[in-house]
Specification:
The complex is a heterodimer. By secondary structure, chain A is mainly beta. In chain A, about 5% of the residues lie in helices and about 55% in strands. Chain A folds into two domains: about 100 residues, Jelly Rolls (Sandwich), CATH 2.60.120; about 55 residues, no CATH class. In chain A, strands 1, 2, 3, 5, 6, 7 and 9 form a seven-stranded antiparallel sheet that branches. Chain A has a four-stranded antiparallel sheet with strand order 10-17-12-15, with no helix packed on it. Chain A has a two-stranded antiparallel sheet with strand order 4-8. Chain B is an alpha+beta fold. Helices cover about 20% and strands about 30% of the residues of chain B. In chain B, the strands form two sheets. Chain B has a three-stranded antiparallel sheet with strand order 1-2-5, with no helix packed on it. A two-stranded antiparallel ribbon of chain B has the order 3-4. The longest helix of chain B has 11 residues. At the A-B interface, strand 1, strand 3 and strand 15 of A face strand 6 and strand 7 of B. Strand 15 of chain A pairs parallel with strand 7 of chain B.
């Protein structure tokens, strides 16, 4: 894993990249509902498959996690049982992590929009948007946008992933 | 509050031995060698080689303060405080579990992303 730290609208945000086949271990010391997750994890590229997990774990939903997703919404209602998990990354994979501890225990609300090439997203005044991956008509990867005009349209010129912040730090 | 006292001066080595303790983690609790009721050694007795010329006054105070085992003594105070959870109960499930070490990758400095207004 390669981790790069960015300051985005004042928040400390890590972009973690993994190569195809890389294994990542995670230990949950107790049953952990994802709704209560303290951190925001945006899977902007790639996916992972659980190749080792606790014996009594049977939530197929977690076993194979593919595509562009956000842990808090995609895994809502699902719980990691206590124990150790090993995941194998499928394809070159990129995960943006907003870590609660790194931000003094205080995090904004976040949402995401995944655009396929050619798709558009109409913004609202006041939105703070990070182009986390891909290219758009308003900027490419690592561009921060503050929307001050009405009905500004973002058009994806490649597959793109936008992260929308409720506020700055 | 962490305190210190110089308990030995070794001129032949140009060094001193300093004892650190607190009002809660006392010298008696830290003692490892007691003779006839006199504490001869504590876990927090540290020997320091001094530079030449040896620091004095505030400089000596700074020298000793900078070497205090602050984190360790703070932890020991927490262990003695019934209002602080130091039970390590979250570790119970991991006791004896063999786990491969994933070498952490050092996180570089934070890159501040520029912002554009549209």
């Amino acid at each position: 894993m390669k981790s790069t730290k960015y300051t985005v609208f004042g928040w400390e945000f890590n972009k973690n990249t993994f190569v195809d086949g890389e294994e990542v271990a995670a230990i949950f010391p107790k049953d952990t509902p994802m709704d209560n997750s303290a951190n925001w994890l945006f899977w902007t590229k790639g996916s992972r498959v659980a190749i080792s997990y606790p014996q009594d774990f049977n939530d197929e939903f977690f076993i194979e996690q593919r595509g562009r997703f956000l842990n808090k919404t995609t895994f809502a209602g699902h719980t990691y049982k206590r124990g150790k998990y090993v995941f194998q990354v499928v394809g070159d994979t990129e995960v943006w992590c907003l870590d609660c501890a790194l931000n003094g225990g205080n995090l904004p609300n976040l949402d995401f929009v995944a655009l396929d090439v050619g798709q558009t997203y109409t913004t609202s005044i006041g939105q703070l948007i990070l182009v986390a991956s891909g290219e758009t008509n308003l900027g490419s990867e690592l561009t921060c946008l503050e929307i001050v005009s009405e009905n500004k349209v973002i058009t994806a010129t490649t597959d793109a992933f936008l992260i929308i912040f409720s506020g700055r730090k | 509050m962490i305190k210190y006292k110089i308990i030995e001066i070794n001129t032949e080595q140009h060094s001193i031995v300093v004892r650190y303790y607190t009002d809660i983690v006392t010298e008696a609790m830290l003692a490892t060698d007691i003779l006839d009721g006199v504490i001869r050694r504590c876990r927090t007795d540290y020997s320091f080689d001094l530079p030449v010329p040896a620091p004095t006054g505030t400089a000596l105070d700074d020298f000793i303060n900078a070497r205090a085992p602050v984190a360790w003594l703070t932890t020991q105070e927490a262990v003695l405080n019934p209002d602080v959870d130091t039970s390590l109960s979250a570790m119970t499930a991991l006791l004896g579990v063999e786990t491969p070490v994933i070498i952490p990758v050092a996180t570089p400095q934070s890159f501040v992303l520029n912002q554009i207004t549209v």
